[in-house]
Amino acid sequence: MDIIYVIDIIGTFAFAISGALVAIKKNFDLFGVIIIAFVTAVGGGMLRDILIDANPINWIGDINYIYTILTAVLFTFLFRSRIAPLRRTMFLFDTIGISVFTLLGLQKGINFNLHPLIALVMGMVSAVWRCTSRCINPKSSIDF
User: Residue 9 has what DSSP assignment?
Assistant: First the structure.
């Protein structure tokens, strides 16, 4: 297994937990929690892949992303009383995740022979959309 893939799966798990925590805090039902976790975890990569016409879109081509997100949601429901007090730690994980996913998105842009500046923008889209997407919902606020 490629180390980049492992990092991507770990980051997906962490961002799914982050999204699930926000949705639980906002009193979403189980389906809503799964959707917010999903969009938070893979939304940025999906948007990037749509913009660069990558086929298949990252999570569609690999079922492990779905399994990772569902596992993260289950993990969050089971251990939320222990995870919730780690809000500052989750902020740290978000910060690390943003940097990792910026580099992964940049790498994918370069692999698609995009101009380096455009590849950098694709890296930023990949990373920042993941965090931003969990705040775009009817019950949203910036806090997490």
Answer: H
Cβ–Cβ contacts within 10 Å for residue 99, how many? Answer: 13
pLDDT band at 144 (very low <50, low <70, confident <90, very high): very low
* Orientation of helix 116-133 relative to helix 87-111, angle to 10°: 150
The per-residue pLDDT for range 1-10, each reduced to its tens digit, is 688 889 889 8
Enumerate the domain spans of the chain. 3-133
Task: Check if the beta carbon of residue 94 is closer than 8 Å to that of residue 18.
Answer: yes
**HEC assignment per residue over 19-88:** HHHHHHHCCCCHHHHHHHHHHHHHHHHHHHHHHCCCCCCCCCCCCHHHHHHHHHHHHHHHHHHHHHHHHH
- pLDDT tens by residue, 40-77: 889 888 999 999 999 998 899 999 999 999 999 999 99
Q: Locate 37 and state its tokens.
A: 């976790």
Distances from the Cα of 77 to the Cαs of 17, 34, 88, 89, in angstroms? 9, 11, 19, 18
Token pair for residue 13?
């798990």
